Amino acid sequence: MIKVSLAQVKLLAQAVGKMLKADTSDWKTMFRLEDFKKEIEKHLSTAQKVEHKLFEKYGEKKEEQLVIPKDKEPIFYKELGELMSEEVEFDIKPIDPTHLKNFEMNTFDFEVIKPFLDEGFIAKRRAELEAEDNKKEEKDDGH
User: What are the angstrom distances between the C-alpha of 102 and each of 8, 21, 94, 117, 124?
Assistant: First the structure.
């Protein structure tokens, strides 16, 4: 089981969305990503319901919208922050993105999803990055 905050779940949704747009014929990877997406959506749906209740609790209707009055903002944001730091658990099998092609993930996305990736992939990627760094150092030393 891996625990993450609800704030991190929102970021995970973006990273998994990028991975799901990739080209692959590997059914195992796609199944695990789709399963993970379903779990993410479940947690986000629950969080949205609670967030809406917070708006109802502290908000006032103005022109058909709920608006948080200035005097209630501190308590509203305090409670919203507590909600976003609430931890949820994921019990999913590790994802090996080796078979995913034609997708881009930035460093931030990678760090967010890293705890859910296959250890073998992580070790291989770490070794590749170290080899690239060593080549750069050798090249720099040669000039």
Answer: 25, 8, 21, 18, 19
